UniProtKB/TrEMBL annotation:
Keyword Nucleus listed: no
InterPro entries referenced in this protein's UniProt entry, alphabetically: GHMP_kinase_N_dom, Ribosomal_Su5_D2-typ_SF, Ribsml_uS5_D2-typ_fold_subgr
Protein name per Swiss-Prot or TrEMBL: L-threonine kinase BluE
Gene3D superfamilies per record: 3.30.230.10
Protein source organism: Pseudonocardia xishanensis
Keywords associated with the record: Kinase, Transferase
């Protein structure tokens, strides 16, 4: 049957660096800044041929994700058939084919999770086509296998997560929701597209990131947007020290803070949710960074 799936994008990161897991293993990790108003949708139409394709255009990561999903469903079907649990859910016994069509408004290569949104929407659509709903943890495993590094966009609830993007595992759930923030976005580096490399870069010194992790956890728990913005600014400073970040920081002099994409050119000024974005837009324009739009994230926490 025809299947459908969707996935939102994000607006870069609030925090990214190197963090210890519960066993003390150092892993690359990130906390994304959600952008749920922009999303990718996928439609899967099974076909008689064993080949599965994804379009429009060349979508190699989503194509790998589609094929890995079909193979995972086939393996699951074989396990169920051999366990005597029957075939209440229609899972193919061998990999099948079809066509995935992606639609959406997520820009490519700017650090907004376009490839992960493609991948997650594709996984969901293919699984839905075979009558199966895949858990986020399994989607994360397939996504990392398909694209080497993945964003935590497969989780539908608003809880901010520290996510090991090259392992596909959640290192920590930091709280129930980010406090409300208004983001006025812009593009650094002239908006040049960036493709996340398959090879993992060297991990940075973890000491500073352990402190930022603790600070962000406390800020989320206390619903403190100012401290969230300070953590994001500190993470941005650790990530890059060049004229582009200097311009962003100059524009954000009267904002709560700034945030950047750690693999891409998207960035933003962080404001209180009820703030007028016009002064921030003017500040960005004054340093040569035209604003790309304004949106609000987070939820108010009852006292």
């Amino acid at each position: 049957m025809t299947g459908s799936g969707w996935c939102p994008c994000h607006h870069g990161e609030l925090l990214q660096g190197a963090f210890r897991d519960r066993d003390g293993v150092l892993r690359a990790g990130l906390v994304t800044l959600p952008r749920p108003d922009l999303r990718v949708r996928a439609r899967f139409e099974p076909g008689p041929e064993p080949v599965i394709t994804v379009g429009p255009g060349h979508r190699p990561k989503a194509t790998r994700a589609a094929r890995l999903t079909v193979a995972a469903l086939a393996d699951r079907g074989a396990e169920w058939a051999g366990s005597g649990r029957g075939t209440a859910v229609a899972v193919p016994q061998r990999p099948g084919g079809g066509r995935v069509t992606l639609t959406g408004s997520v820009p490519f290569g700017l650090g907004m999770g376009s490839s992960t949104a493609d991948v997650v929407a594709t996984i969901r659509a293919v699984a839905d086509g075979f009558g199966v709903r895949i858990a986020p943890r399994e989607i994360a495993r397939i996504a990392v296998a398909a694209e080497a590094a993945s964003d935590p966009l497969m989780f539908d609830d608003p809880r901010p997560r520290l996510f090991a993007q090259r392992d596909g595992v959640v290192l920590e759930v930091l709280g129930e929701s980010l406090p409300p923030l208004r983001i006025v976005g812009c593009l650094l580096d002239g908006g040049r597209p960036v493709d996340t490399p398959a090879d993992a870069p060297p991990l940075p010194d973890p000491a500073a990131y352990a402190e930022l992790r603790s600070r962000l956890r406390r800020a989320v728990s206390s619903a403190d947007p100012t401290e969230v913005a300070r953590v994001a600014t500190a993470s941005a400073r650790l990530h890059r020290a060049d004229s582009e970040i200097d311009r962003l920081l100059a524009a954000g002099e009267h904002a709560l803070g700034v945030q950047v994409a750690h693999s891409g050119s998207v960035a933003g000024l962080l404001l209180r949710p009820d703030a007028d974005p016009a002064p921030a837009v003017a500040a960005l324009r004054a340093v040569g960074l035209p604003a790309t739009g304004s949106f609000v994230v987070g939820e108010l926490v009852a006292a």
